[in-house]
Design goal:
Subunit structure: Homodimer.
Keywords: Carbohydrate metabolism, Isomerase, NAD
CATH topology of the largest domain: Rossmann fold
GO molecular function, one term: UDP-glucose 4-epimerase activity
CATH class of the largest domain: Alpha Beta
Structural class: alpha/beta
Oligomer: single chain
Order of helices and strands: EHEEHEHHEHEEHEEEHEEHEEHH
Distance between the termini: 29 Å
Number of domains: 2
Number of helices: 10
CATH architecture of the largest domain: 3-Layer(aba) Sandwich
Largest sheet: 7 strands, parallel
Strand order of the largest sheet: 3-2-1-4-5-6-11
Shape: globular
Helix content: 25-40%
CATH superfamily of the largest domain: NAD(P)-binding Rossmann-like Domain
EC number: 5.1.3.2
Radius of gyration: 19 Å
Cofactor: NAD(+)
Length: about 325
């Protein structure tokens, strides 16, 4: 297949590009490099362009037929979305509309969308399945839900078929150490913990140790980035074969607490990790775990890196070999 990966220089997108290329597909990457890195695109053809620029999209999509488009080019920081909502609505919604309109014009009808568990908001029950009410509590989650709703309308009106993949906590790194997380600033727990282990960070803050969980810290569902990528490829293959829009929750179905992550990181790294106790953050549920049975049943998807120690070990290899280096965007 010939596949366009938008945001393919970012964390999940770059892993996706490598997986697609390894599977023998022809990959074209579009990224504006505001959050991605040119050297993270280690396969396929790269085009530096912005989704806000419709002329650039016309050039890319008009350059030849694509079997599908994968979209990873959203802003993802929940806190920033609260303080700068305009940035999030412009990029995550308006720019996505530019992409969808260009797809419709050039007859590309298969779209894989990187969504999020944040569309659900505070959980009414655990684990969260696809039927759980969707009440996002921040602009980030609302932008993702808006796009999901737009996709339903574009399916009805234009026949644009889509699969929305709602991630829980993406984690880990390429098993061969080729790629990993390089967010700036970093907000994800596992790389933050490992930066404290390597000495790049003085300590890790634990926000709340009095939750109704076995050790008092929040429980989250961590899913390896390569397992996420596997789900994307399966979703695209299913979409092309069956032509039906769907949405899937993606997680391991196992929750691990913040303290368990820290303990595992200490074992994997062989280093003591300083911890600073902090107050709870507003809006942090005690427990978030996915029910991914639908993806397993309909896509035939099965996580291959569900063990927390393996997820942390892959991320630690990245932190050791690459995290301490200066990685200027280029």
């Amino acid at each position: 297949m010939r596949i366009l990966v938008v945001g393919g220089a970012g964390y999940i997108g770059s892993h996706m590009v490598k997986l697609l290329a390894d599977a023998g597909h022809d990959v074209v990457v579009v990224d504006n490099l505001t959050a991605g890195y040119r050297d993270a695109v280690i396969a396929g053809d790269f085009i530096q362009a912005d989704l806000a620029d419709r002329a650039s999209l016309d050039t890319v999509l008009g350059s030849g037929s694509f079997d599908g488009v994968m979209h990873f080019a959203s802003y993802i920081q929940v806190g920033e979305s609260v303080t700068a909502p305009a940035k999030y609505y412009q990029n995550n919604v308006a720019n996505t509309l530019n992409l969808l309109d260009a797809m419709v014009e050039y007859g590309i009808r298969n779209f894989i969308f990187s969504s999020t568990a944040a569309v659900f908001g505070e959980p009414d029950y655990i684990p969260l399945d696809e039927l759980h009410p969707k009440n996002p509590v921040n602009p980030y989650g609302r932008t993702k839900l808006m796009v999901e709703q737009i996709l339903k309308d574009y399916d009805t009106a234009y026949g644009l078929k889509s699969v929305c993949l709602r991630y829980f906590n993406a984690a880990g790194a390429h098993p061969e150490g080729l790629l990993g997380e390089r967010h700036d600033p970093e907000t994800h727990l596992i790389p933050l913990v490992l930066q404290a282990a390597s000495g790049r960070r003085d300590a890790i803050k634990v926000f709340g140790q009095d939750y109704p969980t076995p050790d008092g810290t929040c429980i989250r569902d961590y899913i390896h980035v390569m397992d996420l990528c596997d789900a994307h490829l399966l979703a695209l293959e299913k979409l092309i074969t069956h032509g039906k829009s769907e949405a899937f929750n993606l997680g391991n179905g196992n929750g691990f607490s913040v303290q368990e992550v820290i303990d595992t990181a200490e074992k994997v790294s062989g280093r003591e990790i300083p911890v600073i106790a902090a107050e709870r953050r507003s809006g942090d549920p005690a427990r978030l775990v996915a029910d991914s049975r639908k993806a397993r049943e309909l896509l035939g998807w099965e996580p291959h890196h569900a063990d927390l120690a393996q997820i942390v070990a892959h991320a630690w290899e990245w932190e050791k070999h690459f995290g301490g280096l200066a990685n200027p965007k280029s």
